[in-house]
C-alpha cells in the first residue's frame, strides 16, 4: 500500500529527499509541493532561504536546520521523529539535496536505522546542463567543485585528463576564468566544452566552444563571470592516428607484464581498462622487442 506521495505505509516515518528549483520556481513539482505540505517537519540547509520558497507556495510546515555543520549531530533529532512514525522532508537551498549539498549523513543515518528514504526528483544543475549541452551523455562523470587553489585544481584536472567520459564540474563565478584557464592548460584548447550559466533564470546562457575559445569568450565579457555555472568538458579521445591507449591503461599493462605471460597480461589489461585486446597485445609486443 502506498500513500499519496508514493511511499509504503509502515510504522516508521519516511524521509523524503525533495528537489527544489535551481532558479525558476515553476520547476517545483506538484509532488514536491504535496510532500512538503504533508510532512511533520522539513530539514532545510538554510531555514531562512527555504521559508521564502514555502511562503511563495503557501506552505506552513515547520522547518529545522540541517546543514553541513550540524548534520552529523542533529541527524538524531530528525531520526527520533522518523522512528516515532512521523514523516520528514529534506531540502537544500536549490536543486537536489546531497548533490554538492548537505544531506548525506542524514540519509545514511536514516537508512542505517531502517527508515524509508524516498527521493522526490526534480531540478539538478548538472543534469539540466548535460541535457542541453550536445556532448555525449550516455556516460559522464560529475566532479563537483574543484579545489579553490590553483595547485590543487590542476592536480585534480590532471587526474581526469584522459577520462573518456564527459566531465561535469560546478564552479563559483569568481573562479570561472582561472578554472577555464587551467582546463585549457591541462586538457588542451581543442577539447569541446560548454559553460551553462544561470540555468532556468533570466540570464540563462549555454555557450559551447572549444576550451581555448570558451576561455577567451569568458575573459572578454565580465558578465560571463557572474551567476551560477556548470562547466562541461568533452571526454578524452586519442589524437587521430595514435593508438587509443591511455597512460593509465599502459600502467596497468606494465604491472601485469611484470607478473604474467604477454598474451594473458594483454587480455587482463583489456578487461580492466576497456582498451581493445589487440591494441594492448601489439603494445606489449613492442615493449618486449624494445627490451
Ligand atoms: N544541489 C544543487 C543541484 O542539484 O544542482 C547544487 C548545489 S551547489 C551548492 C551550487 C552549485 O550548483 C553552483 O555553484 C553552480 O555550480 C551549480 N548551480 C546551481 N544552480 C545553478 C543554475 N541555476 N545554473 C547553473 N549552475 C547552477
Automatic annotation (TrEMBL):
Residues 244-287 form the RsmI HTH domain. It catalyses: cytidine(1402) in 16S rRNA + S-adenosyl-L-methionine = 2'-O-methylcytidine(1402) in 16S rRNA + S-adenosyl-L-homocysteine + H(+). One of its GO terms (molecular function) is rRNA (cytosine-2'-O-)-methyltransferase activity. It is found in: Cytoplasm. Residues 14-214 form the Tetrapyrrole methylase domain. GO terms for cellular component: cytoplasm. Keywords: Cytoplasm, Methyltransferase, rRNA processing, S-adenosyl-L-methionine, Transferase. InterPro entries: 4pyrrol_Mease, 4pyrrol_Methylase_sf, 4pyrrole_Mease_sub1, 4pyrrole_Mease_sub2, rRNA_ssu_MeTfrase_I, RsmI_HTH, SAM_MeTrfase_RsmI_CS. Its main location: cytoplasm. Its EC number is 2.1.1.198. NCBIfam families: 16S rRNA (cytidine(1402)-2'-O)-methyltransferase (TIGR00096). Belongs to the methyltransferase superfamily. RsmI family. PANTHER family: RIBOSOMAL RNA SMALL SUBUNIT METHYLTRANSFERASE I. Catalyzes the 2'-O-methylation of the ribose of cytidine 1402 (C1402) in 16S rRNA. This is Ribosomal RNA small subunit methyltransferase I. It comes from Pseudomonas inefficax. The lineage of its organism: Bacteria, Pseudomonadati, Pseudomonadota, Gammaproteobacteria, Pseudomonadales.
